[in-house]
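Bit of a strange request maybe. I'm writing a small parser for structure token strings and I need a real example to test against, not something I typed by hand. Could someone generate the tokens for this chain?
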Amino acid sequence: MADIKKLESELWEAADDLRANSKLTSQQYCMPVLGLIFLRYAWGRFKRADAQIDADRAQMTGRKPPKEPADYTAKGAMFIPEEARYDYLLNLPDGANTGKAVNDAMASVTAANPALAGVLPSNYNELGNELLRSVIRVFNNPALDEEGDDIIGRIYEYFLGKFAPAVASDDGVFFTPKSLVRMIMNVIEPTRGVMLDPACGSGGMFVSASDYVREHGGNPAEAMMFYGQEKVDYNAKLCLMNMAVHGMQGEVKSGDEANTFYHDAHELDGQCDYVAANPPFNVDKVKHASALNAGRLPLGAPKENKKHEVSASGANYLWINYFYSYLKRGGRAGFVMASSATDSNAERAQRRRLVETGHVDVMLYVGNNFFYTKSLPCTLWFFDKGKPEALRDKVLFIDAQRYHTAVSTTLNEWTPWQLKNLSAIVWLYRGDVQKYRDLLEAYKDRASELAPLFGGEAGEKLVSIGLATDFAPAHEAMLAAIEEQKAAAKAEVDALPKREQKKCREALAEVTAQMEAAVTEIGEAVWLAEKFGEGTYADVPGLCKVATHAEIQGDQSAEKSSWSLTPGAYVGVPPQEDDGVDFHERMGEIHAELLELQRQSNDLMATIDKNFRELGL
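Reply from user aminoacidic:
Good idea to test on real output. This should exercise your parser:
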């Protein structure tokens, strides 16, 4: 996260140079800047794929056929003609027409990838040679070689916030953080088929789905077809760039025909294996009659207000209707939704119909500060039209508001291990015990890898972990080892001449930081093992509960039941740890302290009053 923030700052500095030294407006230079980021990111993936192809060929015997664009697509990359490769542009000779070279590069990429027709910018001549060469050099950043992330979309949102803050937050549109997107994929588990995102933005859901398929041994270029609808043309172009750069197949539509409230642009109602989305929350001014005419409302129509529009809460349920309607039999959906939608009274009847279908699978409350530019809480909803009969009457509720990693005071995320732990709860609920056990084995392997860093008793315990209950003692030994390391480090530094102390202190601090990071990792294993042992699901107060439809209905009177899908209403609160302090005794002490402070305050006020009188005031 820190590296990405540094990258954003550096790239914005280059973009701001364009603003200051060119005649282009923000709208005009936004896409050229993002086009260069796209080209650099595509080149990084191309290089990685090229190395993998060469490694595969090294194992071949006999004649090796020439490399084809399809070879790169199979590796999750886009084929880039030589004149469009970033190193070619970096090494243009002095005096070359850089603007023309970049325009030609974009044209050759489009020729090799027809889906990008009309998407990539072609106005680089307007930037001027020196300025453009400078920006190309700045954008040659190794952070853009990172795998498995919607780098383009994230930087776009950062830039959009700089270019036009009002646009960045318009209609509830904002970038979906990687950990939320990955959690959605971990639950819907895409393998092959058709995926739709009817509010696709820059395509982050597609990128994460593609990564998931590849990590599980599939080839997304062959196994998946991705379809997107995106009202904002800029976002749709970025989505197409993202799909091309990751070697994905599919189609994205934008503009008025892609407004999901009024159009099923790809005619996919009831045809999708997967739906994944982060739609705009709480949108008002949706035309009621037009929304009804557009259909896809199996849960019921929203109410009409005096302005013949749909309320913000009703618009949220339009989205929920769509996600459910687009699924075919056996399909799965995962989406982000405003937390208010889980128990809004006006949509109680729609929520009841949804629960009674038996297709609500998981409800996961996220909490504040997960979004890059917003602090609002949200809930992840999951539908499964292929739920086994044993689970049709049940819904898994997870409240993860207390479970996250703070990146900063305003931003939280789930680490890879935390994502696996939350996914493990879902696996156990579904009866996928082997996946849980595989995760325990992964933790054991990681513990063995970390053992040499600690040595001694902690190292021995890390290597010898056999049962889930062995993680906690190993974790305690690691903590003790860190304290010993800190004490030994202080003694070692103090024994050195002062001129050598700083360098030694920095080296020892780095070792301590590595040990503390390792403690955090194994701490996640402890968190999981203490709750579910060797692989048995159990409701955990304050974290998770499997509730039946009867529990969700609550009061048997349909008029009184809210049919709430709010996780907190079911999981309760975690038990409070006994701190060993007698409540009544401590309250007595606090009362005595308060009386003493009050006496001192009275004495001080009397002294001040006396001093004023002596001054004649």
